[in-house]
Amino acid sequence: MIPEFDPKRTRRAVRLGILRTAAVVLAVLLVVSLAAVFGSRLIQERGDRERRMVDVLGTALQLANPGYVIQERECCDISLTGMSFTVDVRPERAMGGFFAGADAQALRVEQDFFGRVQAPPLGHATETSLTYGLYNVGTGNQPKEDMRKVITRLPEGLTALAVVEPARPLNAKDLAAFLTRTGLNAERIVYENRPRSTPITWSMYQLGEGPGEEDDLAGFRRWVGSLRDHDEHNLRQFGLDLPRLRKSAADGLAYAFVTNATVGGLRKIIDDPEVRTVRVADVTYDLQRP
Fold first, then answer.
1. Do 136 and 69 have their domain in common?
2. Strand partners, 173
3. Which sequence ranges are marked TM in the entry (predicted)?
4. 203 and 157 in one domain?
């Protein structure tokens, strides 16, 4: 027998059917979403992709902005659309200043799902006094005679951040001998002759990881050697390119270097016949000195 039609039971059955269908759809969507999230993470985290992102993009950011100290803060944020990491950035200042590290800001470096960078932080209109000093390497601007007068006016006990330009480009052996003889340190080395533009510089201290077993040139060459042709797009976003980097690394010539020294020390150095000029970028009184 056909049961008697019951409107209430029919409505209840319809509601249960709708709820079951909705639950199934939500479950499917949840599974798909989780699969997409974890699948995206697995794809983006494969191999050493995270560390390589920091190594390539973070180092490129530092090379493109030699007037700043850039240190890794946090790695890495991964989303469906890409990966990112955070760096602390502050202008390079003379060492010993009371507020030397107080003006750091956090910036994010991002790449999309395919590993491409579109808008790196800093870039144009972020020059510092050190940047201008590096722009002038090879130009003949701020010659020794003018800079000697500047240094003479400064108190001898101040600590200065300066760009030392030798009379001729120095290979690694000659640079080491020059630094030993003068007692200077080379915190950044300019490996490119590019007057009125940002030259390629390198420091042992890349992204705050501290010095390794390599000297500066060996570290620079190792990093350049790790780059691949597919890195070209990202490098260009930072104003760099592989041919320039590879030539600078292969030549290995130091056209200038950045140092921290006392004004008294710079007065001696600027009279050295092997020095073309010394460009002072910043000075500060070292509160740690007696």
1. no
2. none
3. 21-43
4. yes
Output 16 or 168, whichever has higher pLDDT.
168
- The 10 Å Cβ neighbour count of residue 274 is 13
3-state secondary structure the chain: CCCCCCHHHHHHHHHHHHHHHHHHHHHHHHHHHHHHHHHHHHHHCCCCHHHHHHHHHHHHHHHHCCCEEEEEEEEEEECCCEEEEEEEEEECCCCCCCCCCCCCEEEEEEEECCCCCCCCCCCCCCCCHHHHHHHCCCCCCCCHHHHHHHHHHCCCCCEEEEEEEECCCECHHHHHHHHHHHCCCCCEEECCCCCCCCCCEECCCCECCCCCCCCHHHHHHHHHHHCCHHHHHHHHHCCCCHHHHHHHHHHCCECEEEEEEEHHHHHHHCCCCCEEEEEEEEEECCCCCC
The whole domain housing 276 covers 129-285
Q: Does residue 231 share a domain with residue 271?
A: yes
Average pLDDT value for the chain: 83
Strand order in the sheet with 82-91: 68-78, 82-91, 105-112
Q: Are residues 60 and 108 in the same domain?
A: yes
Write out the two tokens for 91. Answer: 């202008």
Q: How confident is the model at residue 209 (pLDDT cuts 50, 70, 90)?
A: very low
Task: Return d(Cα 283, Cα 157) in angstroms, integer.
Answer: 10
Contacts of 267 (CB under 8 A, 6+ apart): 148, 151, 152, 156
Tokens of 290: 């007696």
DSSP state of 5: P
Q: Is the dihedral of CA 214, 219, 221, 222 positive or negative?
A: positive
Q: Which among 228, 207, 206, 229 has a CA at the least distance from the CA of 218?
A: 206
pLDDT digits (tens, 9 = 90+) for 126-174: 788 999 999 999 999 999 999 999 999 999 989 999 999 999 999 999 9
Judge whether 124 lies within some domain.
no
